[in-house]
Request: fold
Amino acid sequence: MKPLAALTRDEANQLRGLLFDLDDTVLDGGRLGEEAYSALFRLREAGLLLIAVTGRPASWAELIARQWPVDAAIAENGPIGWFDDGERLTRFDSVDVDERNRRAALLAELIGDLRRTLPALVPADDVNGRVTDFAFDINEHHRASEELVAAAVARGRAAGAATFRSSVHLHFTFDRLDKATGALRYLRLRHHVDPTAARRLFAFIGDSENDAPCFAAFRTTIAVANLRGRPPIGPRFITEAPQGRGFAEAARALVALRG
Ligand SMILES: [Mg+2]
Reply:
């Protein structure tokens, strides 16, 4: 990984947008700070489309797309989100209503099984806003042991579910998109950018294991200094500051290079 100073003017000027993670990238321990929030306005003024790509619930994405200076928010690690076309807010789901209901029933059955067999698992406090997945709190308000996480992951995978791990949550889902495929799908549908071009035209900034698909998929990839886990393909650049201050640092670099 290189310092952000190694990012060239050419590369920054080719960008059409920035995809960004929320927890521990823009948010500091779940809080939105002044510096990170201001950075979004500066990035937008620099002509970049801004798209949040988070493991947080669809209900959060609706609020973020409605209130923040962003183009869209993709939630639950890829399959669902909201965008604002300037007039109204639109929800997009990667499957139709019947298939969504079928997957919801499978998920309810799996979560029932996990809670019976591994009673130490604690649901995340944002599960009510979720549509495509269910999350357990492993490092937000409760600390889950690695053994407990491993047992839950094994049981979920045996039932045919996919699992994702962020800095705070362990997710189970019957959807097969991840942050990268979900973002590429959105960029094709809404902005008519084909996936090959999108990988060059959109940068990504994140901090953890559930960001690995985006670190692998996009060309301009940045980690904030608190990067955790070992993504198989790591980000190319890293900030000096952690979390929201790291995000603001990356924003300043992008804005300066495009200025
Ligand atoms: Mg994160």
Notes: Residues 21, 23-25, 166-167, 206-208 surround magnesium ion (CB under 6 Å). The two ends are 25 Å apart (CA to CA). The mean pLDDT is 96.
